[in-house]
Specification:
By secondary structure, the protein is of the alpha+beta class. Helix content is about 35%, strand content about 15%.
């Protein structure tokens, strides 16, 4: 038999590059190999299996050639690792999307299966014996035997776990602590188990969600029978949604990731505290897999590595606050960054360990042309700077939950104009709640993941009750507002998160929710209950009436915390704002906020009319004050920058005094 002739057919897409008319990018995802024996086209592996040994080599050579044409200088091992990681994510994402779809068809069974699983894992712990986990047979019996809880019910137990006492809340020994934003106190930390660190990145990247407590592994065979537990729904699912909404993100340009380089801290005993940087798989998809002690140095290095690559298509951050901090650092230090890119070495002004400096320098090379291009763009100003620095930028991915909603609006209106901002996941203390599978929608909504944590919902007319009746996933109603209650394997059961969500619809039997606000971030002088959502709406309305002003950040407090600094004897809101564009506010401008609050809240307007509360007092603080407060809070707690959010409503006098010392008007 004659040896078949080998014809390699390469099917690929080419597209011209901006400013480089003769250079093209090879779309490797459409690449295929075929053999042509005797005139018939058949799969290569069916005719000449040994020829497949040549395919990876040919694929790699084509990849390297295409990237060199684009001016990229990346190691071959990094290219191959990136390509394999993308393919692995694609496979996992497609598979887990199908599993998620299946779980939405019978949410009650899936939820109860996961609940019974984690209860059996922890039934011999001190908490499990106290609340008779062995006797739980379904969701109804669980709600009868176990009361609703708040953090105070766990504070002493978590402290004992930190001291090394075993099997208090979890059968598995926890390995790390983490924060749930916007808390910044030692007594508001949560536990994470080793198995969760190993498995949870497949459900959701830890660094994507500040303050995340992970799920433990489901390795009890009896507990798993009859349940549809999926531990891969999260990161792979949202990345699958991103790939479908923005197909060009399949290409081998890496995304730039900000705010994930801070090193772990140590708690009062053996346990480290912080947020995991992630697994090998996801490190391959990012530009800077280092850990650094100083947040400012970390942001500088991340910016440097991102700026040197003009082909980036995705910017990622654990939260919108982290991305705002990155652009603020860019605005302050762009001249230093350009100089480092021009000479190809890291500035000596950064006090880094020698081995870390060598690692960073190993990724740099002198690029005067890129430095000149960047300088021209910076001199034009920073409005819309992201798209001008990275012309191929397609997406910004960052969490927009809670305080980050305002940061997202700031990014959209200033640095990241005309770039979609995607909030991929919704998480709480016990783990993943939902995934946003509609990245193209402007208002993020999240499909709840039935196979993740067990969820209950408290109707808004029952929030003041100590033990209100709860509803399950299949019992909630569209357009209704609820407080979220969660139970997971990391120790918290029927835990009132304080998160308020609105059900916007259903996907099969599974609710789709929109995050509204956190009950703990509510101002309440005389029963008016001004939520974070209402306050932000009023503040943004007022800022639009301050000619030339743009809002950078804000914080507020009730006047009882302001001390002698407070103006007026009536109870009122003390509001600290950081602005760009103006450095002073007239009295009439300050009153605009109070007028906006009255338009937003009928209860507040009534209290103002009766004189029960005084007008809100607006204080203008100097630039960078809230970033300084963030660093100050980091020194008080065992978190990392990615795990800590500055609370909008300040509850501690020392934090109010911190901002008072930075007032300029």
């Amino acid at each position: 038999m004659a040896c078949p002739r080998l014809i390699v057919l390469m099917e690929f897409d080419t597209r011209p590059l901006d400013g480089l008319q003769s250079q093209y990018w090879l779309g490797l995802n459409a690449l295929s190999f075929r053999c042509h024996p005797a005139g018939d086209m058949v799969p290569l592996q069916d005719v000449w299996p040994s020829a497949w040994l040549l395919a990876p080599l040919l694929l790699l050579l084509l990849t390297v050639s295409a990237l060199l044409w684009r001016g990229q200088k990346r190691p071959v091992a990094a290219l191959l690792g990136h390509y394999l990681a993308m393919k692995m994510v694609a496979w996992l994402g497609h598979r887990q999307r199908r599993l998620l779809e299946a779980s939405t068809l019978d949410v009650r069974r899936v939820q109860e299966g996961g609940l019974l699983c984690h209860l059996r894992l922890n039934q011999h712990t001190e908490w499990g014996q106290r609340h008779r986990f062995k006797e739980v047979t379904d969701a109804d019996s669980f709600r009868q035997l176990h009361p609703l809880t708040q953090y105070g019910d766990y504070a002493e137990l978590i402290h004992r776990v930190i001291q090394g006492v075993p099997e208090v809340l979890t059968a598995e020994r926890p390995c790390t602590l983490t924060l749930r934003p916007p808390s910044s106190e030692w007594d508001h930390v949560y536990l994470c188990t080793p198995a969760a660190n190993v498995h949870f990145f497949l459900q959701v990247r830890l660094s994507d969600s500040p303050g995340l407590v992970c799920r433990a592994r489901y390795d009890h065979p009896d507990a798993l029978r009859g349940s549809s537990v999926s531990i891969l729904q999260g990161s792979t699912v949202w990345m699958d949604a991103t790939f479908h909404a923005f197909p060009s993100t399949w290409l081998l340009q890496r995304s730039a990731s900000f705010g994930r380089l801070s090193a772990w801290r140590r708690a009062e005993s053996w346990m480290p505290a912080g947020v995991s940087v992630g697994s090998w798989l996801f490190r391959r998809l990012h530009a800077a897999p280092f850990q650094m002690a100083d947040e400012r140095d970390a942001l500088y290095v991340e910016l440097l590595l991102a700026l040197k690559d003009p082909t980036l298509e995705v910017l990622e951050a654990a939260s919108a606050r982290e991305l705002c901090a990155a652009f603020a650092t860019l605005q302050e230090r762009w001249q230093e960054l350009i100089e480092d890119i021009r000479v190809g070495t890291l500035s000596q002004r950064l006090e880094l360990e020698q081995d870390l400096r060598q690692q960073v320098n190993g990724l740099l090379y002198g690029d005067a042309h890129r430095a000149d291009d960047l300088c021209l763009e910076f001199e034009k100003g920073f409005r819309g700077i992201a798209r001008r620095l990275w012309p191929n930028l397609k997406l910004v991915a960052a969490t927009l939950i809670g305080p980050n909603q305002l940061y997202g609006a700031i990014l959209q209106n200033y640095c990241c104009q005309d770039v979609p901002i995607y909030s991929p996941v919704y998480t709480v203390a016990e783990g993943l709640v939902g995934v946003n599978i509609w990245p193209e929608k402007p208002v993020p909504t999240y499909l709840l993941c039935p196979g993740s944590i067990f969820c209950e919902f408290i109707p808004d007319n029952s929030w003041k009750e100590k033990q209100p009746k709860t509803l399950l996933m299949d019992e909630v109603e569209v357009d209704s507002v609820y407080e979220l209650v969660v139970s997971g394997v990391a120790g918290l059961c029927r835990f009132r998160t304080g998160d308020v969500v609105k059900v916007t619809g259903f996907h099969n039997q599974c609710p789709i929710v929109e995050f509204k606000y956190r009950r703990g971030q509510t101002l309440n002088l005389r029963g008016e209950q001004t939520t974070e959502e209402m306050f932000v709406q009023a503040l943004q309305s007022a800022v639009r009436q301050w000619a030339g002003a743009e809002l950078v950040d804000y914080g507020c407090a009730e006047s009882s915390l302001a001390g002698s600094f407070s103006v007026g004897s009536d109870h009122h809101y003390e509001v600290f704002v950081e602005l760009v564009g103006i450095r002073n506010l007239s009295e009439d401008q300050r009153l605009k906020l109070d007028h906006s609050l009255q338009e937003t809240s009928a209860t507040y307007k009534s209290l103002r009319f009766r004189g029960s509360v005084g007008p809100a007092q607006v204080q203008l603080v100097r630039g960078g004050s809230f970033r300084e407060l963030h660093r100050h809070l980091l020194n008080e707690c065992p978190g990392t920058p990615a795990s800590l959010e500055v609370p909008r409503v300040l509850r501690r006098r020392e934090h109010v005094s911190f901002l008072q010392s930075r007032i300029i008007s």
